[in-house]
Amino acid sequence: MSARYAPVGWNRSKLFYDAILLAAVTLYLLLYLWVGPSLETGTLPIDDQTLAMNAWGTCAFLLLSVVLAIGPLCRLDPRFLPVLYNRRHFGVITCAVAAGHANAVLGWYFAYSHVPPFEAVLVADTSFGQLHGFPFVPFGVAAFAILCALAFTSHDFWLAFLTPPLWKALHMLIYAAYACVIVHVSFGALQDPGDPLLGMMLLASAATLGVLHVLAGRRSVLAAGSATDSGWVVAADLDDIADGHGIVVPLKDAEAVAIFRDGDGLSAVANVCAHQNGPLGEGRVIGGCITCPWHGFQYRLADGCAPPPYTEKLATYRLRLEGTKVLLDTRPNAPGTYVEPLSIPAEGASADVVQA
Amino acid sequence: MRRRHRAVHRRVWPVLAVILPLLVIAAVVFRPAGPTQAPAVRLSPP
Hints:
The complex is a heterodimer of chains A (356) and B (46). By secondary structure, chain A is an alpha+beta fold.
């Protein structure tokens, strides 16, 4: 665990998640391709190739929108967390569907080009100086290139190889890809007068994602505890922390802290897993150890040390109980420092002030 | 490190939340109006 690459194994829930997702994608494409033509109202029926382009393209756009919504939804409501755990698979499937769109485009518009299709798609439309007819293809190519790069590096090997900071920075390019997709569709398909549904879908996606991300960002700022001079903040109410689970306590100008409850004891450690920066507070207590939700790395509750023979250590924090309020000392102890778990008094017992 | 990424999130999304919907609206409002938007004219047989 300490010094080697540890792949994430397939498990039942991941297989189930992927099966549901693939079934949904297949159903969407089939419905679009089979039912779509009967709903056409134009005087000129849409050709099969354009229908295929639209089906793959709209499907990829919807998937990308959902992928981008998962993060803020989880920060706003923990019930969405199960969707977060397999988000990388979601992203790879999004890229595969986008490849279907690209394949349909290359096979229709560039099949008879005098230059190879992959070259033609890059040079066919470069008239950036005009508003009407502004080139939209390069934005689609850029978005697809980003999606491919992210899908290719989504495996845990690349997370370990690139290191988490670089990997995370690279994968934040998904925002650029989304912006490129919006430009691509706005200056492309949206310029054709016709079905208003596409414009509404695009607007709903952009507005919803914007609102969700802004709300999630504001919430984490508002929730961030401001330490007093003594360094203590009110972290949570005792009832907020379920037995065997943790909570994440965002802090202003500092890394978040994870507080766990194990039976009648409370412990606090840094929220960032020493393995690959997983969010420990979203994990569980298994076998008396904090277990990272990403890769199952474990740490002892009292000292934040991985059990032998492993050597990872987390910073620990002191806790205090005032009535039912859990107070946290925001000044971290050195990684691996032993802190006696805070004992929760039995119900009915006096619990005015208890300190670890 | 995660804090830095969260800070980037907080800076990027308020901008995207305004720009992207505006772009979509502008693309619809300013799209070229032309004969393609006129109702189809049925030609009478010669």
